[in-house]
């Protein structure tokens, strides 16, 4: 792993020019041993001879990150899968062969078949299951991303401020975090979901749709883990010399937090965020499964499984397909998180 | 004599720890004149770094506490200045070079970005293009080859010497009037140290900054400093120009330091270390803090009971020593250094 840049030219020069000289001519008998007169002035010629033939490409941070990411095969494959799933979700209306509440009374509880495009079969009301899964992905993915973004923002802000300032601020913020953590998650989720109702509501000019409500509840519970992780990273990083150096160069607290420390936390944040996406999909599914999540007729992956399990193994496709999709999305997101973590760390070398 | 650019008066800094109060810096005073290089030498824990870090508000408070003193920079006291003003001075008019270039650069930002940021922090209107031009120029000043390309590289792509050059470039980015170098060569190997000395000179030429050079490397002091402050156990024990410090020290500790130094100009069978250990700053010896290790004191009562004041010697009053018996030392001790100067001239 040799870095073509590493041996610097002036080092070569100096060690040749003053081999074995102590660094101190004034003590050493009045300049009997001279320092290299001026390594700055003489380095260019050496530099040419040394560097000719060595090709160095300056790449941007993102270029490096991209290269590193694309070496991670599993992550790339997962990314492709997730993009496909996301595209299907976004263009659900165009892609789904039927509407999610369209009834086909000729085919009730049909098993998967190529006929009439009922690839995933139909449910007990004769609705095309492929279409329902596609619309379910749309809802679940939307909720998951909403939860991930919101809880990451809250968690990072809490963690960064607590970790950077420490002391009383840290204590206050972290005790609040602990408080949220001690709440029995499922109970709170169920209570909140029941309390907030199963329809959309109006807060000032904002319409909060029912899936968004579920997202808000989840985000409220999910940011704590990230806050603790970010706080931990900040606690260790704020003692680093480069933070002290930034302080010494006059940077404000805000600048140090945002520009100097936060980029060093990108790895853990991205990984945690992908974990949150995966967990949010699963918890939202569980919530919907229990009937407190996304309300029918809106399909969500969890409620699809809930509906399907009534019949047991006779209608196996009703449980299997949405379940599979959940697993695929959760896995893909986790692998992408892995790949991103490695890619975003600039100290990771690119191995030839 | 021009007015000092930075004047430290009676600076006392303490740290409250679980074991008691650590007297890190006690009644330290010195002036820094424009364009000069002032060396501060002393063992680890003698208060060298704390004395300057506290001026810039870089010691953690608490446990640190500035008990008393002033640090006047252009008529304003750095110690009592509002935080925001101090921040504007830090990295602008008073800049700092840190000891370990390996850890003092942010690993996730490019070298160029970090230096450019130092500029843009203090000149918010600077465009990215202008900042880049200036950074490339600075990198050239400190001898980073192919500066244009190096701009976009990360710290881990730089060698130790190159990183320290980048640190120096960052420190001089805003044309500071005072440059504080905290052991700038300690973390580097010897051949690189020699180059960094040159780079420091180049940096000083570029900015006309007065430099405070904190080090325990007497070679570096001899190389760069004009005047020297010798610190021991949190106090200034001797202050003079560099020739006098090396050739006619007037404090037993400085004498001890010189005797413990390997010198190519002398026939030394053995180096002579200073006996004993540096004292704990939690529990300093009474009287002169150096007396338990002092060969010159020979158990005299006064050394054990009375804290010696810093007194001036010779013509001009520019040589200060904190030893009760400095005159005796002068008479007795014809240092080998003087002989060395004669030999070389």
Return the CATH class of the largest domain in chain A. Mainly Alpha
For the record, the CATH architecture of the largest domain in chain A stands as Orthogonal Bundle
Total number of domains of chain A: 2
What's the assembly state of these chains?
heterodimer
Gross geometry of chain B = globular
Radius of gyration of chain A: 29 Å
Major β-sheet annotation of chain A: 2 strands, antiparallel
Fold-level CATH name of the largest domain in chain A: MetI-like fold
Helix/strand order of chain A: HHHHHHHHEEHHHHH
Overall pLDDT of chain B: 81
SS-based structural class of chain B?
Answer: alpha/beta
Proportion of strand residues of chain A: under 5%
What is the number of E strands of chain B? 12
Describe the structure.
The complex is a heterodimer of chains A (352) and B (345). Chain A folds into two domains: 9-51, no CATH class; 62-343, MetI-like fold, CATH 1.10.3720. Chain A is mostly helical and 352 residues long. In chain A, helix 6 packs parallel to helix 9. A two-stranded antiparallel ribbon of chain A has the order 1-2. Chain A has helices at 9-17, 39-51, 61-71, 73-90, 92-95, 129-165, 167-182, 185-196, 210-237, 241-248, 253-289, 301-308, 316-343; strands at residues 201-203, 206-208. The model of chain A is unreliable at 1-56 (pLDDT under 50). Chain A is 65% helix and 2% strand. The longest helix of chain A is centred in the middle third of the chain and has 37 residues, at 129-165. Chain B is of the alpha/beta class and 345 residues long. Chain B folds into two domains: 6-225, P-loop containing nucleotide triphosphate hydrolases (Rossmann fold, 3-Layer(aba) Sandwich), CATH 3.40.50.300; 247-344, no CATH class. Chain B contains 13 helices and twelve strands. Chain B has helices at 48-55, 83-89, 111-122, 128-141, 147-150, 160-171, 190-207, 218-224, 242-247, 252-259, 301-305, 326-332, 336-344, and strands at residues 6-17, 20-32, 37-41, 64-73, 76-77, 94-97, 178-182, 210-215, 227-232, 235-241, 311-313, 319-321. An eight-stranded mixed beta sheet of chain B has the order 6-7-8-3-9-10-12-11, sandwiched between helices. In chain B, helix 3 (111-122) crosses helix 4, helix 3 packs parallel to helix 6 (160-171) and helix 4 crosses helix 6. The longest helix of chain B is centred in the middle third of the chain and has 18 residues, at 190-207. The model of chain B is unreliable at 339-345 (pLDDT under 50). At the A-B interface, helix 1, helix 2, helix 10 and helix 11 of A face helix 2, helix 3, helix 6, helix 7 and helix 8 of B.
């Amino acid at each position: 792993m040799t870095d073509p840049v590493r041996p610097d030219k002036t080092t070569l020069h100096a060690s040749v020019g003053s081999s074995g000289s102590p660094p101190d001519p004034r003590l050493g008998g009045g300049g009997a041993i001279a320092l290299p007169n001026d390594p700055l002035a003489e380095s260019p010629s050496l530099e040419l001879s040394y560097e000719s033939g060595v090709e160095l490409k300056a790449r941007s941070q993102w270029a490096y990150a991209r290269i590193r990411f694309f070496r991670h095969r599993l992550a790339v494959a997962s990314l492709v899968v997730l993009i496909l799933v996301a595209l299907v979700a976004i263009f659900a209306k165009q892609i789904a062969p039927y509407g999610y509440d369209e009834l086909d009374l000729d085919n009730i509880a049909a098993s998967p078949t190529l006929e009439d495009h009922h690839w995933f079969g139909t449910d007990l009301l004769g609705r095309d299951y492929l279409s329902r899964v596609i619309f379910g992905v749309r809802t679940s993915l939307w909720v998951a991303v909403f939860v991930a973004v919101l809880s990451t923002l809250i968690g990072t802000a809490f963690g960064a401020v607590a970790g950077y300032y420490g002391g009383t601020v840290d204590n206050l913020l972290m005790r609040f975090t602990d408080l949220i953590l001690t709440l029995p998650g499922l109970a709170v989720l169920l209570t909140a979901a029941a309390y907030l109702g199963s329809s959309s509501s109006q807060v000032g000019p904002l319409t909060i749709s029912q899936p968004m409500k579920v997202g808000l509840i989840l985000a409220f519970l999910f940011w704590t883990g990230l806050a603790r992780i970010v706080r931990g990273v900040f606690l260790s990083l704020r003692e680093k010399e480069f933070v002290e150096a930034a302080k010494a160069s006059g940077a404000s607290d805000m600048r140090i937090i945002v520009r100097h420390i936060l980029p060093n936390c990108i790895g853990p944040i991205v990984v945690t965020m992908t974990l949150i996406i995966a967990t949010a999909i699963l918890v939202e599914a569980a919530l919907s499964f229990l009937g407190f999540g996304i309300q029918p007729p809106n399909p969500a992956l969890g409620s699809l499984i809930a509906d399907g399990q009534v019949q047991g193994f006779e209608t196996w496709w009703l449980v299997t397909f949405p379940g599979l999709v959940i697993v695929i999305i959760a896995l893909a997101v986790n692998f992408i998180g892995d790949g991103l973590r490695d890619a975003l760390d600039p100290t990771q070398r690119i191995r030839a | 004599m021009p007015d000092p650019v930075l004047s430290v008066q009676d600076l006392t800094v303490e740290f409250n720890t679980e074991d008691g109060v650590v007297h890190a810096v006690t009644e330290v005073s010195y002036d820094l004149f424009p364009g000069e290089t002032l060396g501060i030498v002393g063992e680890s824990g003698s208060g060298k770094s704390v004395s300057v870090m506290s001026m810039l508000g870089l010691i953690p408070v608490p446990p640190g506490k500035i008990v008393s003193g002033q640090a006047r920079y252009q008529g304003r006291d750095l110690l009592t200045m509002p935080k925001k003003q101090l921040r504007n001075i830090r990295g602008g008019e008073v800049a700092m070079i840190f000891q370990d270039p390996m850890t003092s650069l942010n690993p996730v930002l490019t070298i160029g970005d970090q230096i450019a940021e130092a500029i843009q922090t203090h000149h918010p209107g600077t465009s990215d293009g202008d900042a880049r031009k200036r950074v490339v120029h600075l990198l050239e000043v400190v001898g980073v080859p192919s500066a244009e390309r190096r701009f976009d590289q990360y710290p881990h792509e730089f060698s130790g010497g190159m990183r320290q050059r980048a640190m120096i470039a960052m420190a001089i980015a805003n044309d500071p009037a005072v440059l504080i170098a905290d052991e700038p060569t300690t973390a580097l190997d010897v051949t690189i140290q020699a180059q960094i000395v040159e780079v420091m000179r180049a940096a000083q030429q570029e900015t006309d900054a007065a430099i405070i050079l904190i080090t325990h490397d007497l070679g570096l002091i001899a190389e760069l400093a004009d005047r020297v402050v010798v610190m021991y156990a949190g106090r200034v024990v001797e202050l003079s120009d560099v020739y006098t410090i090396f050739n006619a020290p007037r404090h037993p500790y400085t004498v001890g330091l010189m005797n413990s130094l390997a010198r190519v100009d002398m026939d030394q069978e053995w180096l002579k270390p200073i006996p004993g250990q540096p004292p704990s700053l939690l529990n300093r010896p009474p009287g002169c803090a150096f007396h338990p290790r002092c060969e010159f004191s020979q158990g005299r009562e006064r050394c054990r009971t009375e804290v010696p004041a810093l007194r001036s010697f010779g013509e001009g009053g520019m040589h200060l020593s904190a030893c009760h018996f400095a005159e005796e030392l002068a008479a007795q001790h014809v240092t080998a250094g003087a002989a060395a100067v004669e030999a070389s001239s």
